[in-house]
Amino acid sequence: MYDFPDQRGHFGPYGGVFVSETLMYALEELKETYAKFQHDPEFIAEFNSELKHFVGRPSPIYHAKRWSDEIGGAQIYFKREDLNHTGAHKINNVIGQALLAKRMGKPRIIAETGAGQHGVATATICARFGLECIIYMGSVDVERQAQNIYRMRLLGATVVPVESGSKTLKDALNEAMRDWVTNVENTFYIIGTVAGPHPYPAMVRDFQSVIGTECITQMPEMTGRQPDYVLACVGGGSNAMGIFYPYINYPDVKLIGVEAAGDGIATGRHAAALCAGTPGVLHGNRTYLIQDANGQIMETHSVSAGLDYPGVGPEHAWLKDINRAQYTAVTDDDALEAFHNCCRIEGIIPALETSHAIAYACQLAKTLPKDQTILVNLSGRGDKDMHTVAQHTKVKL
Ligand SMILES: *Cc1c(COP(=O)(O)O)cnc(C)c1O
Hints:
The protein is α/β, with parallel strands linked by helices and 397 residues long.
């Protein structure tokens, strides 16, 4: 029976709590609160009610039949997280954390965001629950993501551009940490993926595991059995852990995470921490990182902003080491090709992040017989990516 992390947040040699002493109190408080409410029937009922009435869960599973027929191999199925309110899986997790914030009596929420998707999800739930919302974002990212900034402001959030360092995600993260230390009495820090110090990786995984739990009932209803393969794209790794976790104790189900190979692993311009990185410490936990020989974090690249992160959640590092999940990577070009095919053949515009997982599903399906099934977590819709796709296709909007 798989039972990780341990009491101190370790997934084997990964995870843990690598933070300054000033943050230890806040993390202890969060750990105790989560332990208290995690199995509380009233908390679970409220979480499920929000997922049903605000998010629209359960999300359906869809058989991509036309595409599967065209490929002529395994049958491909999509878990439709793109149909959630706000268009992706991120909302599942922010609801869980916001409910904890309410129970802790903390009316002020902070978060950091790179592409803006986690910022929008957080601003959404703060509006829903009447919580104050401050979003830290590198000033370079603020320039690049004008639409998401406007969304957050419409939802009532304050967006704080961060001018230090490279003015991107890691600088926004440092700023959010500083804010948290200073205002811990009334402030809850909502992290958007399965990374950060314990208890975040386990807590975010638990909130997202509603995805896989639904699949475990839905797949037998649709196909008579569990899938042979479960695939998901991996940035920080939250949509992947959400669909993988409930399947870990089904040894016949193969789990495959798909990272961003950018221009190709060999070019060095990628974001594939598990496929091409080495273990180290970043953002409060030990995990695989894209770093140089001196342990300096290197610049990453991906066409999808949501996969463009130099680390990965520590549980994925562990699943890789114990060989329970496999990890592979897909280039920008292959992801874009899968994006266009998915639009044309299935009538679904997927997020560019998701398109990485879809691209690998197609490659894999070709090698398998027709009675095998591949379940892909369709983590989000692609409306946010129109500009990027048009630019790469040399179309002027
Ligand atoms: C943010 C995002 C991702 C990447 O984050 P994970 O934590 O790896 O899931 C993937 N897909 C979509 C649609 C996203 O918005």
